[in-house]
Amino acid sequence: MHQWILATGNPGKVREFAAVLGSLGVEIRPQSAFGVPEAAETGLTFIENALIKARNATQHTGLPALADDSGLVVDALGGAPGIYSARYAGPDADDQRNLLQLLEAMRDIPMERRTARFVCALALLRHPTDPMPVLCQASWEGRITFEPSGSGGFGYDPVFLVPTEHRTSAELAPEVKNRLSHRGQALAELAQRLKLDSTPLMAD
Asked: In the annotation, is 197 catalytic?
């Protein structure tokens, strides 16, 4: 098994990544297990921040590192909250405060203009100076509802309406969400690319 570091301390995210990549001979370990400090997300795009987090993890562990950066992009808000999705209502905001901030910002926007998408960028680095990182990016189209619905998921899921399912992301069964979601799509792309090219599996 090849051991990779995932730039997160979230056990749910570790399980999600491990479920997809385990069949490729990859063991996913969270950076928190190695005492890796959080990286300052100073990038201006999802890809930049994913690279920053992956490079930070591999610098501290010497192992290949995988990171994702995800967020919600709302057309009527000029792309906000975007890369600031996790701290939309302030640096110490939680999911509930961010969600309420979003609903307030969109209070007078009609449904036909409430188009949005979740975006996920993945970056895989074999070592800190890897000149050819594996990059994957995917999006999940939807609309922002006027009020929360559903108890599943996290973040903005309760207000993200999935048109094909006629319900919010928070109302979807986990297996359905994992198949449709931005992160699920990006992970599927990564797995497919690794099946075609084994080079990223090996650290220098």
From this structure: no
